[in-house]
Predict the structure.
Amino acid sequence: MHENKVKVLVVEDEASIRRFITLNLETAGYEVGEAESGEDALALLTTFLPDLVVLDLMLPGMDGLEVCQHIRGTMPDPLIIMLTAKGQDTDKIMGLELGADDYMVKPFNPFELIARIKALLRRRDRYEPGRRAYTYGSLHLDTVANKLLKNNQEVELTPTEYSLLKMFMENPGKALRREEMLNAIWGEDYFGDTKTLDVHIRRLREKIEDNPSEPRHIKTIWGSGYRWQKETTGRLP
């Protein structure tokens, strides 16, 4: 639990929508910062230090995809929810590929946005420092430092990638259904589809597998979900 208010940065160029989101988040108890452009958002990142960013995809100048990429390249910790319009499936997937944790399609119910935020924050808090580390071949996950090493080199993970990897390592050899993983990582009130999960799995494979097209660790169970391969496992207290 955090003693201070959770900080949410709302990046939206339409003033009426931005204020609508801000008012609902403030009513829900969050400390909210506002930015009307990608450039303003990047300027606020290092001073406001948000826990989560609500990021509109269609921004003037630097668009949401560029902002998302910049955040992930410099500050891997903030959670990111992207706001997209209907019919922007390609951009939606691109946002997830660049490191967004979730997305919502406009128009949306503000209560659903708050539910998504709460689910992401619960997941983040659930996977904050524990007592164990996991070693699988060249991979070593330190859950005290929240750090992944591959061949003794640190690998940057987004909060969602970290949560997925920890879930896999805690359940070696177990068949994990997509719906089960969505509920565990995004919360039981998640309204998205399994495409979100598949994109995050693909990104995670690209970071941990020597050959992502022939994964050694994360195996696909066709029509069902995924399984973490049990070979070369070890645990440290």
